Amino acid sequence: MSTIIFKQKPRIIGWYSVAGKKESQGPLRETFSRIVTDEYFGEKTHEMAERKFFVTAIQGAIQSAGVQPDIVFAGDLLNQIVSSSFAMRDIGLPYVGIYGACSTMALSIINAATYVDAGLVQTTVAAAGSHFATAERQYRTPLEFGNQRPPTSQWTVTGAGATVLSSAKTSSIGVTCATIGRVVDYGIKDVNNMGACMAPAAADTLERHFKNTNTQPGDYDAIFSGDLGQIGEEALRDLMKEKGYPLGENYYDCGKLIYYGEQKVDMGGSGCGCSAVTLNGFILDKFQQGEYHKVLFMATGALLSPTTCFQGESIPGIANAVVIEEVTE
Amino acid sequence: MSTIIFKQKPRIIGWYSVAGKKESQGPLRETFSRIVTDEYFGEKTHEMAERKFFVTAIQGAIQSAGVQPDIVFAGDLLNQIVSSSFAMRDIGLPYVGIYGACSTMALSIINAATYVDAGLVQTTVAAAGSHFATAERQYRTPLEFGNQRPPTSQWTVTGAGATVLSSAKTSSIGVTCATIGRVVDYGIKDVNNMGACMAPAAADTLERHFKNTNTQPGDYDAIFSGDLGQIGEEALRDLMKEKGYPLGENYYDCGKLIYYGEQKVDMGGSGCGCSAVTLNGFILDKFQQGEYHKVLFMATGALLSPTTCFQGESIPGIANAVVIEEVTE
Hints:
With about 325 residues, the first copy, chain A, is α/β, with parallel strands linked by helices. Helix content of chain A is about 35%, strand content about 25%. Chain A has 2 domains: about 5-165, Stage V sporulation protein AD (Peroxisomal Thiolase, Chain A, domain 1); about 175-325, Peroxisomal Thiolase, Chain A, domain 1 (3-Layer(aba) Sandwich).
């Protein structure tokens, strides 16, 4: 059984998002806990800035929860997930490094919830983030190169988000179940078309989730994918229709929500930070405001590396889904 | 509390190790499940070979357990942990990517045990691996460059190991508790001296583990560190003496166990595969033979990336420890 049901329904007791300048010019600007317009965040390099976004998000979430956590689960896109690891030098707590590419926010929440559900610890933090400049440099070309972006490309979100989970029943927002992703590869090799690489994995996870939980897309107030972008979203809608679970108007992609079309982001936002700042702002705020009662949050990842692309490999995808809902008991 | 106590004591019901040629010439040769002397494992690139070591270890462990697992937890040293992710294309099971650098074998076992302990799933697999040629290429220089190795360097183990954990009480080898690592950085910047980078993290984890569990080094049949090598082992012994927990003759380092001195490996073995093949062979075999009843298995990792080194950063370390012991009920 690939869907896990959390017996204790770990509660979300705090969250925080910190986003960059471009994100602050998009539709979600009011929902971020903090905006940092300096792409260097006062640091010498973009890599150090990414790290500072992480530290800011984790510390902000801990402060909003008001409880000292036992373990932090975090990951990012940089090689050897150094943004998370170096951020944890400053945080000083036990740390589990998670990697699910852009699905990391969902994957870290699933792991953070599992430790709480097992009764092994009381409080955990899940975090993920990304930075436009570091991702371009590592996966494509440094910004100074001035490369032209193909129309299928997506814009890596600069920002980080963190969620605090707890065994204490002090919040009515609970994590109730999760479907862990399988690696799915449809043979796509275009490094500038991540949406197409990830959509098949998203469809695989959604189908298993609906089957295992005996639910339909309409049973959720909203279903979010992480960063499929326009092409990926359309592909997912097609695939889900074929599978007998057509997605309706309650389905959104964080990559499409985060920017306006006129911001020149091609197919939309991407990166671990995309779903991380959308969850830890827009989505969780709506629970607090009573607008959402049950949400399926699914983040998707493309499991490539520059080396695998250079060696002619196709790009496998993965998608991790977690149900966040209002719980009463 | 940074040490977690597993209530259900998840059982180790299967394991498998596959190691390369150099490893097959070392003292542990008889303990590997399989030896592959071709460094390409019949593939076109070393990266594809590393992946095949992974698939072989995971499939071998599943076969030895005789049970289909629910989730696989795996990680490796290559950028974007592509060896694990691409291997999971072939395995087809739900997959959680874990990154703890060379501490990944311990970290993946801790996560695999937690999911079983929580009662969320019945059977999980933990896996880790590495390859000498891919690690040299990524972290240092490609082998064709013919770089001279400094005397403090270590030799990345070619091999992979996998462990199957279960809620079924069909084995008497249980995972009883674990201490999750914190990121510790003593400011060392020498990319050719991993032992010195990791020893402070190892000491931090060991001290917390002994304090939290109210045990002493002598309470274990054996204590293993992952790949500190000669310098790191000496540093750890010094640090633990200072902390009031001197390590005795029951302490071993997998990096020192795996090769003979005359194999020209400088300070010893390293890489995720080092502790992975030692655990899933030598150590677990000794449980089966009744020689070990309680072991503290601690794998250590250096959380660097080539980019952080180029940017002048120091190298943070982490160490994750897990207790494996004979359980009766």
